């Protein structure tokens, strides 16, 4: 079933549904694949499905929690390696990465639920941002990587599309 943004929904509800639609699409792209395929680097830069999920978990925690002064777990960012959050280490399991994304998503949802769209926080680069801005940014970020996941999955086994067929 396709998740649709409500045609007459309130702002925060509409943004949250848009985010969830793309979050779910990313996870759907992993379904039915083995660990080797999830880790398979499909671009010259090394992009792989599991790495995209790890990255999205880190940015969910960063934008929804760090920005608004909420607790996070250790994040896989490294000043010496700007792509560290996209890389899957050999000791990281698929289950661990998916659980990390689940916890980040739940933490983001709590922030969305508890704050108003006009509430402000401080971005990692020092600027004041609203929850509205963060929601819009995360819809963009997640949609962008859902598109990457769609292409990677199509290259692996031919499956394409942004949602499960009805």
Short description:
The chain has 166 residues and is mainly α. 54% of the residues lie in helices and 4% in strands.
Question: How would you explain this protein's 3D organization?
Answer:
- The model has no long low-confidence stretch (mean pLDDT 94).
- The chain is built from five helices and two strands; from the N terminus they run ααααββα.
- It has a two-stranded antiparallel sheet.
- It has 166 residues and is mainly alpha-helical.
- Helix 1 packs parallel to helix 5 (131-157), helix 3 packs parallel to helix 4 and helix 3 runs antiparallel to helix 5 (131-157).
Tell me the layout of helices and strands:
Elements (H helix, E strand, L loop, with lengths): L10 H18 L6 H5 L9 H18 L27 H21 L5 E3 L5 E3 H27 L9
Antiparallel strand pairs: 1-2
Helix pairs in contact: 1-5, 3-4, 3-5
- Roughly what fraction of the amino acids lie in strands? under 5%
The whole-number mean of residue pLDDT values reads 94
Helix content: 40-55%
Basic shape:
globular
Low-confidence stretches: none
Keywords:
two-stranded antiparallel sheet, single chain, mainly alpha, 4% strand, 166 residues, 2 strands
């Amino acid at each position: 079933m396709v998740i649709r943004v409500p045609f007459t929904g309130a702002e925060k509800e509409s943004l949250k549904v848009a985010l969830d639609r793309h979050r779910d699409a990313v996870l759907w792209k992993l379904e039915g694949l083995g660990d080797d395929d999830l880790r398979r680097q499909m671009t010259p830069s090394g992009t792989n499905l599991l790495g995209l999920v790890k990255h999205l978990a880190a940015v969910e925690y960063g934008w929804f929690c760090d920005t608004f002064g909420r607790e996070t777990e250790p994040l896989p960012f490294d000043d010496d390696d700007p792509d560290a959050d996209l890389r899957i280490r050999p000791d990281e399991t698929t289950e661990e990465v998916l659980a990390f994304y689940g916890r980040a998503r739940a933490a983001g949802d709590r922030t969305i639920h508890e704050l108003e769209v006009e509430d402000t926080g401080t971005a990692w680069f020092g600027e004041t941002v609203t929850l509205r801005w963060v929601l819009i940014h995360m819809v963009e970020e997640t949609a962008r990587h859902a598109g990457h996941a769609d292409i990677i999955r199509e290259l692996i086994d031919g499956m394409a599309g942004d949602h499960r067929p009805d």
